[in-house]
Amino acid sequence: MELHFISTGPFRYMHMIAIQTAIMTQHVDRVNLWYTVRPSGIYFDQIAPLVVLKDVVLTEMPVFKGKTPTFQFTHMKDFVMWKVLDEIGGIVLDLDTICIQDISDLIKDDLMTASLDVEDYESIPFPFNSAVVMAVPNTHLTRSIRRFADASIMMESIPWGLTGPIILSTIALENLVRGFKITPHLVFNPFGGNEISAIYREDPADIVELPKETRVVHLYSKVAPVFDTIDAEWVRTSFSLLARLIKQLLPESAWNIRAPWNEEAYLNARGRHYKGLFEVIKEIVPANIMEIGTSSGQTAIGMIRTAGQFFKEDQISYYGVDLFESGKPSQWELEFSGGFVPPKMDAVKARLETETQAAITLITMDSNDLPRSSPESWPKMDFVYIDGGHRVETVANDWKFVQTLMHEGTVVVFDDVFEELPFIGAKITVNTIDRTKYDVKISNEVDDYTHPWGRLRTRLAVVKLKRPDEPRAVKPWAKDILTKVIGR
Questions:
Q1: pTM (2 decimals)?
Q2: What angle do CA 387, 392, 395 make, to 5 degrees?
């Protein structure tokens, strides 16, 4: 028996997990991954050596004109599924399923079985779900559904689910005594579409357990938006049933695959003015990075991963300065960060070492107690990001210390240049920087943050040493013309 997955869109983290759990649990001769467009990315790279890759060539399908990508991906998967089951047979699993136990023994004397959305199949018009379908090839069941799907694809318009749950349920209910087997709801689909949120719950008091008879869980990616955001960090930290299942089923080496750095997601979450920070990183590609104000480490990860796109990440050194858990509420109030809950340094370091390949050094230190010279063990920094306290005196102390770590090519970026509130943040310090010695540029990107007391408008400032003017090189042909014109 063969097991099939069908990829018709972007290949995500949970798609990798789906295939890995199937490989771990199913007693089949081979696992095939059929695709309409060859997948790519780090998650596909993990499973490509483990499956048989099958390219599907599709003709033009009129029904897809003007439809959303989700509509196209879903119905395209149905079209390929019925073709595969009719010609080869076996098991087809959606890429939003995870396998708990083997299901290959469930179809022996029957011709087809599929997952139910509900416990009582007579309670709704279309009770069968096409997330899990098992079939013997070239039977009246596979031929009937395939012919219908082939014809539907050529129509001008079809409703959602016509080539999946609707036709499957119609054929199933007509053939219950002619080879279609009803498998209990809890075996393939313990949480129906209305209850699927239970598997993602984080509250320990509200966490559910998986029924013992469950063999495959359908995760309903279309109605669970969190599905597309899951990554290794989520699995590592989540208390949900889904995260616990992944860790129970797979070794850490299989699920702990770091997500690609998503700069756009960071900017959308934190603010567009941070774009200038990453642009500087891309321009200078620093090997030694320092950050004053490491906090949770999210920006550190972004800086390291951005530099790592152009330089070997394991040769990058990161130095982070923060108060971490030693900070007191009075200090946060003094720095205009009241209510801030500091992370623990050990947890931040563990996160940075897990999500990057850089050498990590973290220092617990108050900016107002920074030494007047850099520690002898520290190298000169290629890049420094100042994003610590917001008190004017604190930013000034940070700048004094950073100057001891600069070489002639070092670039320093100040966050918190508050245009309309000069009495806090970096604006006063930036304005006092000697322009005869340093180039100072205020970034174009600006963010407005709303607070109870009003608007906080902020930018970045980019600072680097001025380079001495170099004499302009004179080309040989120009020298010859000058000699003829002026005689020397």
A1: 0.68
A2: 35
Please, which residues bridge with residue 441 across strands? 462
Give per-residue pLDDT as tens, 348-378. Answer: 998 899 889 999 999 988 877 766 666 677 8
Output the pLDDT for position 472.
57
Residue 178: how many other CB atoms lie within 10 Å: 13
Domains within the chain, CATH numbers bracketed: 2-254 (3.90.550.10), 264-465 (3.40.50.150)
Helix and strand tally (H, E) in the chain? 17, 17
Q: Give the whole-number percent of the chain exceeding pLDDT 90.
A: 60
Residue 10 CB coordination number (10 Å)? 15
The 3-class SS string of 188-201 reads HCCCCCCCHHHHHC
Alpha helices (runs of H) in 336-475, residue ranges in sequence order: 345-355, 392-403, 427-431
What is the Cα–Cα distance from 74 to 122, expressed in whole angstroms? 25
Name the band, by pLDDT with cuts 50, 70 and 90, for residue 63. Answer: confident
Nearest to 428 by CA among 465, 464, 397: 397
The separation between the first and the last C-alpha atoms of the chain, rounded to the nearest angstrom, is 89
Q: Report the distance separating Cα 316 and Cα 308, nearest Å.
A: 8
- Nearest Cα neighbor of 148 from 63, 56, 32 is 63
Residues 443 and 267 sit within 8 Å (Cβ to Cβ): no
What is the predicted pLDDT for the residue at 343?
86
Which stretch of DSSP H or E encloses residue 270?
A: helix 263-270
Degrees, nearest 5: CA angle 50-54-57 = 160
Dump the DSSP string for 442-473.
E-S--EEEEETTEEEEEEEEEEEEPPPPPPPP
SS3 131: strand
Summarize pLDDT for 148-171 with one digit per residue, the tens. Answer: 998 988 888 888 889 999 999 999
Residues 6+ apart with CB under 8 A from 199: 191, 208, 217, 219, 240, 241, 242
| Residue 390, C-beta contacts closer than 8 angstroms, at least 6 positions apart | 335, 336, 337, 416, 424, 425
**Residue 459, by phi and psi: left (phi above 0), alpha (psi -120 to 50) or beta?**
beta
Number of other CB atoms surrounding residue 301 within 10 Å: 21
- The strand pair at 454-465 and 438-442 is best described as antiparallel
CA–CA gap between residue 308 and residue 330 (Å, rounded)? 38
How far apart, in whole angstroms, are the C-alpha atoms of residue 76 and residue 72?
Answer: 6
Give the length of the chain: 488
Q: Are 414 and 441 within 8 A, CB to CB?
A: no
Place of tokens 């995260």: 243
